[in-house]
Prior knowledge:
The complex is a heterodimer of chains A (495) and B (329). By secondary structure, chain A is of the alpha+beta class. Chain A has helices spanning 27-33, 38-54, 83-107, 112-115, 121-124, 173-186, 202-212, 237-247, 303-308, 326-329, 332-340, 357-365, 391-403, 480-483; strands spanning 17-18, 21-22, 58-59, 70-71, 74-81, 147-154, 160-166, 225-228, 250-252, 257-260, 263-268, 271-274, 277-280, 313-315, 347-348, 352-353, 370-374, 384-385, 408-412, 418-422, 427-440, 444-446, 451-454, 470-476. In chain A, strands 5, 6, 7, 15, 20, 21, 22, 23 and 24 form a nine-stranded mixed beta sheet that branches. A four-stranded parallel beta sheet of chain A has the order 9-8-13-14, covered by helices on one side. In chain A, strands 16-19-17-18 form a four-stranded antiparallel beta sheet, covered by helices on one side. Chain B is mostly helical and 329 residues long.
Amino acid sequence: MPILDGYSTSTGLDEMFDNGVLRPQYKCVASHLSQIDAKGFLDLQANADLETMSNGITFTVYSDSAGTERIFPFSLVPRIIEAAEWSLIESGLRQRIKTLNMFLEDIYNDAKCVADNVIPADLTLGNTAYQHQMKDFRPPLGCYTHVAGIDLIRAEDGRFRVLEDNLRTPSGVSYVIENRRTMRSIVPEMFPDSEIEIVDDYAEFLLDNLIAVRPENVTTDEVKIVVLTPGHFNSAYFEHSFLSRHMGVDLVEGRDLVVEDGILYMRSTTGLERVHVVYRRVDDDYLDPLVFKKDSLLGVPGIMDAYRKGNVTICNAPGTGVADDKSVYRFVPDLIRYYLSEEPVIENIPSYIGRIDEDLQFMLDNIRDLVVKPVDGSGGYGVLIGPQATAGQISARRKDISLKPEKWIAQPLQNFSTIPTFDGAKLEPRRSDLRAFVLTGQDSWCMPGGLTRVAPDQKSYIVNSSQGGGSKDTWVLKDYSRNGHVPNAKSTGGN
Amino acid sequence: MLARVAENLYWLGRYLERADNQARLIDVQRLLGSEFATNSEGLEFVLDTLEADESFAEARASQPELTAAQYLIHSTESRHSIRSTVTLARTLALELREHTSREVFEAINRLYLSMQTSSTRSIGETMERTRNSVATVLGLFENTVIQSEGAHWMRIGILLERADMTSRIVDAKYFMSLPEGEMVGGPVDRHQWRGVLRSASALEAYHKSYLGSIRVDRAIDLLFLSPLFPRSLVYCIDSMRNEFLQATAETPPARALVSSTELAVIQLDLKAQSGAQIVSAGLHEFIDRFQATLIRIHEALTENLFKGSPTQTTDSPPELSRIESLQSS
Lengths: 495, 329
């Protein structure tokens, strides 16, 4: 029996079927799936997993001491986004990133948004992620969020919404590129005749942006760029290595770097070599033990001094965490209106934050219908799904909220869209989100598509990889009307 | 290049070469040793060569069922097992992903994954797969990895390990006893030397180079002094010096001085000898001296080149000026 038979979308909105009718952009995928039974699909899946495993595309689950290395489960049914819809998303992402950069520049300089009562001071200047080291300092090109990952979901009304902003060290982009590669190798027949946007030039754009934000007095010929990783035990090490490889720059750890007289150097076989741009994948806290976490053995003593002297550029800038705080999220639509005098292209999900009295009251009254998250959490840890929680969990969480209201936010449970995902025997609808990646230097560039993450089972609303979900390839169809391009026939190859 | 990466590439080369030697040794000796069966399944020579005899005896005291083959191949507790060596290589390969190639990493990773499952494969198959995998990795390294500074450091690791292993293989023969009544140069002695040559992949090379039955001085000529045989000490040291000069082309002389001097001295030293001279002056003593030199080279590399310490980068570090004044005086 073909695995697509009996696929039911009773759970709500589905990406592939519109009330049981196949959406046109999925025609090619569906016709391929209609020829495969469970056994055939299991074989394909096994080939894909084998490829992933032998490529060493693994990640580490912190809470699991035994299973230190796992592959990120990969699902062979892609998400497909039409060109017109993507171009709307893209403009929304640019608008958002532009705003968040302006917000960061503002709070680290004049704090006009606070003076104008757009956002409370304790969420900005009083935020634990606020870095006083960044005060009155303008990073090159005024850019703070060189690499951003914006999580989107498609809500019940069919429109995308921003679920969360990630402006510190967002990860996942390497999976996007690897997923495409796996799809091309395992199910080439699934690809449509028309072209889809390519994703594997991400590293080139990243490199261009890192070059663009180099210190002012450094030429493009002499600029030396490194990727800074916490080391190969980090869960995202594969990606750190992947990016440095694809950019052709050195991958360094804190112990490979040293600051002398306000200049950052790398320890090389020939001696010390000057470094101008650091794409860091370590948290603010572990950047510089002289400034941030004083008891840390990690980090590069003096790197903040070198940064403030303009001798090195750190990407993303320290202190961007203020802008992706879950409480600040509530104010992003207001910030867009404030800085750009525009309406948000992509809306937020309604949010209630514990530090505002009326929000708090609403939270406590409606907790059974809400999703309650810690403001400073990530990876899906500590999330309470009201409608699925037990009475005990609800009352415990109520107590937590009453004790420290400012630590919590709540949102109405979103019945966001599903995508067919193989469960071992058949395809079932699983909820999925989309992490879009935006690179910023002189301008912003959005990677077409992004990382589609799926929930681990049909009931779950949590899609984070650390919760055991998987990922999918994401196709953005090319817009021929936009660039006047003629579709290639399949024989001459797509991307 | 990054000093830590250079050091890791050097060690990756060493571990890969070590895994290959371990597999070849076990395979050859297992077959050879079965003719004079002992309680170590004919693997005593391998235990001796890897200096693993004492630790094996200790391990066996607590686990009487442990076989030498298990200890040398699959044991995760033994640092002398192929599995441990492969795991070390793979850990480095993970860390070095961006300095090798996708093909190289995948080949190492596949070898590692295959060592994780103790399957029903015979020892022979396992050894063959290990050797083929290492050969594949080294071949892919030549064909798919940019041959810049890092490639030289990796080859220095391979060559140093290979020289060390060749000398160890010969040294283990030195300690191999002959059954009572057997003479040096007699059939059993020659049989043992044949095993030594085979352990170093040198038996065919021997027959191509010399007519007649195996003689110890000729075996030493081939294994130590041949400039043409790729596992001989002279070949390894010559190639190592060559790689070293390329790897350190941009390096300030002070950093490279000690290693390069050691390499030059041992190179001259080897070339001034013959197999017969080495045998008559004492094979074991020669090997001891040779291995001590390898250790000094290794230490000089580690201290002077892989540390990348800031004190050595100023224009005229104290060490350099001292050396210069010594040279000029």
